[in-house]
Amino acid sequence: MPRLSFLAALLLAAVPTFAQKAKPTENLVQYAKPLVGTSRMGHTYPGATVPFGMVQLSPDTDTIGYELNGKYNPRVYEYCAGYQYADKTIVGFSHTHFSGTGHSDLGDFLVMPTIGPLQLNPGTADQPERGFRSRFSHQNEVAEPAYYRVKLDDHDILAELTASNRVGMHQYTFPQSEQAHIILDLTAGIYNYPDKNVWTFVRVENDTLVTGYRQTHGWARTRTQYFAMSFSKPFVSYGSRNLSKKQVYRGFWGRFDQSQNFPELAGEQLRLFFDFKTTAGEKVKVKMALSGVSTEGALRNMRAEIPGWDFEAVKRAGQAQWQQELGKVVVESPKRVDKENFYTAMYHAALSPTTYMDVDGQYRGLDQNIHRAEGFTNYTTFSLWDTYRALHPLYNLLQPRRNADMVQSMLAHYDQSTLHMLPIWSHYANENWCMIGYHSVPVVVDAVLKGVVPASQAQRALDACVATAHQPRFDGISFYEQLGYVPEDKSGSSVSKTLEYAYDDWCIAQLARKLGKMDIEAEFSKRAQNWQNVYDSRINFMRPRLADGSFRPRFDVLSTHDQGFIEGNAWNYSLYVPQDPAALIAKMGGEKKFLPHLDSLFTMHLPDKFFAETEDITRDGIIGNYVHGNEPAHHVAYLYNWTQQPYKTQARVRMILPKMYRPTPDGLGGNDDCGQMSAWYIFSALGFYPVAPGSPEYALGSPAVYGATINLENGNTFRITVKNQSDKNVYVKEARLNGQKLTRPFLQYADVVKGGELVFTMTGNH
């Protein structure tokens, strides 16, 4: 049978019907723009990766250190993903990156090609010629899913990158040179500081293969990453520079000259170089395979995933994976910008969590021992304070098998935890304890209740959730259990913690009820009411309380600093009771008082001084006092559905979408936060949103697409048809599910996964 070209294969697609899965009729990869969010606050990276890939091979544009004069350097925050669009130089291409985070790590194994006299320092942004970095122009830069290309102007080298799951592949087109080099910088890292490298070990196995590892002490306290690096042609010579500080004990290795052509190297700070002679236009290729287990595992990954040297074949395979991923939802719109926004969001929503195991199933566990994943893919990079809200609910809908594996990964983490806790924010066999709440709980519960996780795992999941919620060492839980709230004088961000614990507890109660564990259900249903303990009815705001039971007198409802909240203020967080909006509305005095509060959130002005001390909140992500660039208020626009004015949800959603999302480098209104911002877009553009994961229903909004077909994993399709769609027709005149008019602005998860059709009829009047 003749082989089809990639484009021809894409065009052989069926016409959407309910009897047959709708398939994309065009190349959707063209609409996904990896450069979106690389400017300012988005903190995304533009490099090459495949869906949920272990390798994220991407350019780093500066080497800003975490520390400056013994203190935190605020500028490092700009480089959470290693790349800032405004920069003019590239230092090199490293193999691990976070997407959209507000703190960082990684940046492993930076590679940079150069020509001319060897330079083993990175130089500076204003004088790149003093080091191995290079100037570049965005005119000579291309970023696509699974492919990145840039011209390194100072070296006259065309750099191209692609990747499989566990292997990054470089292709460097050199000019003619007797002094061509490829530098491997093992000192480089994101959120780097001089002592971050604990140890580095390298073996030059032969003239085309190098193996090694490095261990770092950063956001992940004990992180060990192994590599195998292979060259498409032999290097003629090689060498190294050990930048480690002078050691007290050095043994007898001093008898060797380890700087030139020495095959075994070790130290905290190593840079290596490999010398070549190149002809004009010659392509030198490099493969870098990763493993959390061993160099043998890295080699096994390389041989399994990219055994040869066909760069274009690897690129095609990667983009075919992206086509399949993006094709889970086929949207219709006459406007290209709509498709670019949507498929860029789909792209960003499939970057993490990331695979964390070798091709043979081995992975390093939280206990730093080697485990084997039996019957599931092990994942890492769990930014749960962000992603429990919409990203994991999106996975339950679009790829439940993968989300089931993610839950299994969380349960494995729990089994390996000395504190008997599910993940809080974990990556690379480490818990970094970032952010608040125990938000693996709603991810686990939502997946179990929706049938994504097998019923045989439900009791194990409940036990892990309960143990996590009872861990007294963690973040004010002992006070929370004793007092019914977290006191601000004992644990900061106390109101946020109380509210988020109460929601997580509600999730546990739902699972306990499902399993008939009525004692646990009663306990956690009671805990779920703890949000009321930080509500000050005198002022109609959530407010920090002290251990003696009094409300803290010093209080500012607009400030985001030192007011008992994290990445938000009282105005936003006072609306955080996603498990029971009706009770919140009643508590605030009914709709008469609630609606003006909710309205004002979007219309009032929040002066800069109220978020000046919070680096995660900037003007980019604010509409009125609604902070879309941070997650605590992501559900808020949908709260009108619990009032007599659901049309305001429709108007607010359609207002937020174009303001916070554009297909440009500065097109994200805040950190993408491992896909949460993008998941909000996907759900909202389709016309519904999971206000409370753990609940069986979605809240309806206002679809921004002109139509869509969701290709479900179970073989069904769910069709969204939008009549009278336009930029002005933002209100839903009526919604019909399979011909039946919906009388409430809600949609059941079960109705979606059964397949069918939801028809919105739009109007310009409410």
UniProtKB/TrEMBL annotation:
NCBIfam families assigned: aman2_put
Keywords: Calcium, Hydrolase, Signal
Cofactor(s) required, per the database record: Ca(2+)
Entry annotated with the keyword Protein biosynthesis: no
GO biological process: carbohydrate metabolic process; glycoprotein catabolic process
GO cellular component: cytosol
Record carries keyword Calcium: yes
Protein source organism: Hymenobacter metallilatus
Residues in Glycosyl hydrolase family 92 N-terminal domain copies: 32-291
Xref: InterPro entries: 6-hairpin_glycosidase_sf, GH-type_carb-bd, GH92_a_mannosidase_put, GH92_N, Glyco_hydro_92, PNGase
Official protein name in the record: Glycoside hydrolase family 92 protein
GO molecular function, a single term: carbohydrate binding
Organism taxonomic ancestry: Bacteria, Pseudomonadati, Bacteroidota, Cytophagia, Cytophagales
Glycosyl hydrolase family domain boundaries: 298-763
Assembly and oligomerization: Monomer.
Pfam families in the record: Glyco_hydro_92, Glyco_hydro_92N
Signal peptide annotation: 1-19
